[in-house]
Structure prediction request, 615 residues.
Amino acid sequence: MKNKNKKVIVIIISILIVIILLLALTYAYFRTELFGSEEIVKVGTLDLVLDETSEGIGLDNAVGISDSEGLSLNGSTFELRNNGNKAVDYTIYLDDNTIGENDIRIDDKYLKYNLNKNGADSGATLLTRIGTNPNRVLDSGTIDGKTTNKYSLKLWITDEVDGNYSGQVFSGKLRVEVSQERAKEVSTVLLENIPKENQYNDGVDTFITGEDPNNYIWYSGKLWRAVSVNDEEKTVKLVTQWNISAINYDDDSSAFAGSYMEEWLNDTTVDDFLGNLREPDKFIVTDAKWDATIDDRVLGNITRPNGTPIVTDTVGLLNMYEYQTSYRGTMQGSGYLNNGNSWVILTPYDSLNMRIINNNGLQQTVALESNFGIRPAINLKSEIKIVSGDGTEDNPYRLKGDNDSYLSGVKLNTRYSGEYISFGKDENNLYRIVSHETEGLTKITSAEPLKSSGSFIASTFGSNPVFSNTNRLGIFLNGDYLKNYIGDNYINMIEDNNTWYLGIVGRGTSYRLAKYADIEMNNLTSNTTIAKVGMLRLGELMSGQFNRYENNVNFWLITPYSSYYALAVGNVGSAANTGVWDSSGIKPALNLKSDVIITGGDGTLQNPFKIKLAN
Prediction:
């Protein structure tokens, strides 16, 4: 798809023509009101129309109410009309509206909403599920010519969350964005714009092939490559461009089902991959089929696997057949999926050994207990559309619903793992969001290990592998690093006292033991330390290698391996036990305070977020 300058019309309803939603316990009522004349806005053939007969909702004693009570409220109604003959793409947002100077805005986590569209009901849904201001997406899609969408919106305080919200207020307004150039589905864009010589159809999927096709996609804070389009379903398989983390596959079996690897990829907690993806139910096929058939043949002789076994999961890995097909028409190892790192493939060699793609793009058989680099794979739903970009690395395709704008003033703790931030000084001024492990805070890490005058710095771990403020690495990170690598403009944004988990992860044991006392995650490990700055642990997001090995360096993890060894991520992306007397690079991690806000940027590598303290 050519990188056209699309004309996007942004319609912001004026103060007199807004949905006003006021929640104030001190007023002893709950009220939703819709103000304005009948016809709110007209743009071309598209009208957003307010039902002027819509009545406010009254509820005495505004405390948290149940879902059944919320759903029984009278909704505020409006319509979206397309008076023309051609279909139009649209997005309807619910934005924050101005509140009084002395008012306090209620947190979205206390609110639920229900949206009924043409009789289809969203059910009782937390407001946080549709994004954060100013990117709360009430509805989006394509409206055909001579068609009307009818809506009813309800909003209430949920009784599922305890909190002190007395006297706090929510005020919102509708905004509509209309694209005059219709977005196209991802599968359509890829197959129309990638040359036919870089496509191969095996009767089931159309694969993208070659050395460097324009198949880069940015989604949920990460850069992906489109691998294939399913001929029947038109779903699109993606794999991350870089290793997101590293863990061992399992301790006793190469079966994907039930493995540590499957757990890490599909766990929905704050610690693992799926739990940090943006709205997976909206973007991703959640019942995707992953073929993990054992195959000991060498590259060049792999055929489509026979489907034994098939594992149903949201997130998986590429299998060897998919990797082999990606370089069809080029030399082995020269295809676009060779990123210069080593990473694990879904196809086992036998029942006790896995296979990886090494840094030369060749296959290699390895033991289960090795800590592999991980490149997660997902399948985009067929209806997901591309709204901008040309598929190059510097201008990847952007997906509708993931191409946020108007982010100034938005809290950083509402954003997504992998997004880039301008933070720190000089050549070490680029960081990435890791997760929101501690409620309200944003864990970040340097985008690459620390440098000095263009060269990576290195240090021994200390006298033992237990990190603290008083060991060698801890002294550096909580002293010289803060003074000379961060600077006064950013130090005040960092939370002072953070808990760093120091659970031991030995050979063949679960990555979960780095944080938890048991693999069921019932209890946190008692091995912890308190410090302002620390490092990432084994299996944590953003602990992978994000550059080719010749340009990168080993770096320490905070996780001990044994009495004299700590874990470090190697220059090709796998993690290994490393003597504390050895030198490795340093990749700091820290938590930013809850009141850090975005002042600019869109979170991509080309345009990282700029941030400041709100107060």
